[in-house]
Amino acid sequence: MGATQDTTSEQSQTLLPPPQTSPIYGFPVALPPPPDDHPPAYVLLPVYPLVRRRRRLRCCYLPCHPVLSASSYLVALASFLFLLACLLFLVWPSNPEISVVGIRLDRFRIAPLPLSSIDIAMGLDIKIRNPDLFSIDYSSIHSSLFYRGEDLGSVTTLGGRIAARGVSYVDADLHLDGVRLLGDLFYLIGDVAKGSVPFDSVTEIKGRLRIFFFDVPIKGKISCVVHVKPEDQSIRYEDCRPV
What's the mean per-residue pLDDT of the chain? Predict the structure, then answer.
């Protein structure tokens, strides 16, 4: 009887449907990387307040700024003065340079006593150089001849113009006839006996230099010592120097 009931219950269980279960959902997930044996090192720095950093920068900037401004001002002032000095050096007028490139003795004669006069004809080749950046207008060139300080005579040539940084050549001819020497008669007799009669020649130029709207007066002078040999009427010695 009991066996029959167990058999009946087993048959009834086999006929019933299996129990329903809830579904299970899944998502693919990447596996975490394996642990690193040497992790990266980190340096921890202290954080300063922003206000304190601004104060430090401002304290460094304020004292340095006036020093830089003063040095820049001094450099600019020195450069300006240097350029001004160079400009004045180039523009500042200077006197013309005069030199005697040649002396000619055309005639020389001494009259015997009691006249004791001198006849002399001498020519000077004068070179005039203008060192300025502006042209020169010279009014005249005056040449004088002296014997032991006594003025024997002079000659004046016409003026002209010399270009800036230019050179001009002028001939000055002295013709003196019958010039009597009273105070220096004994010196003249001694110089003739020695065979050398000394003369002094002074040449002077006067003019003006025009700079923009201004006329600047200029002048130049040169002195020459000439020893004349009476026997053959030649120049024995000559020396010219600016005065």
Answer: 78
